[in-house]
Amino acid sequence: MRGFQFGSERVSLGSFQKGIHRARQQRGPAALSVFTSPKSPYDDQLDEESGAIVYAYREGDLSQADNRALDAAFELRAPLIAFKGIEPSRSRWDAA
C-alpha cells in the first residue's frame, strides 16, 4: 500500500502480509490500520453499517508488539483504518 507523504517521509498504511500495522513514524502506542484477508485463518469481522471492527489478536504471545498496538487502539479509542480483502489478489478499489 502506498501510504502518504508527510514532510520528507512516506508513511505506510499497512501491508498485505501483516494484519496489524503501526507506522514507524507514529508517536504513541496505538495501531494505525488492520487488514483482513478472504483467506485469513482468523474470524475477523468488519461491520460496515455500525463501523465496529471485531479483529483477532495475532497468533502467539498476547504481549507481542502487534497485539499491544491493537489493545492500545481500543483503550485509547484511536481511529483505525480497516482494509477488507474481497478476494485473493484484488482490492475493493479494483472491483469498481
Question: How would you describe this protein?
Answer:
The protein is an alpha+beta fold and 96 residues long. The chain has one domain. 17% of the residues lie in helices and 21% in strands. Strand 1 and strand 2 form a beta hairpin.
How would you sum up this structure in a few lines?
The protein is α+β, with helices and mostly antiparallel strands. The protein has helices at about 65-75, 90-95, and strands spanning about 5, 10, 20, 35, 45, 55, 80-85. The strands form three sheets. Strands 3-4-7 form a three-stranded mixed sheet. The chain has a two-stranded antiparallel ribbon with strand order 1-2. It has a two-stranded antiparallel sheet with strand order 5-6.
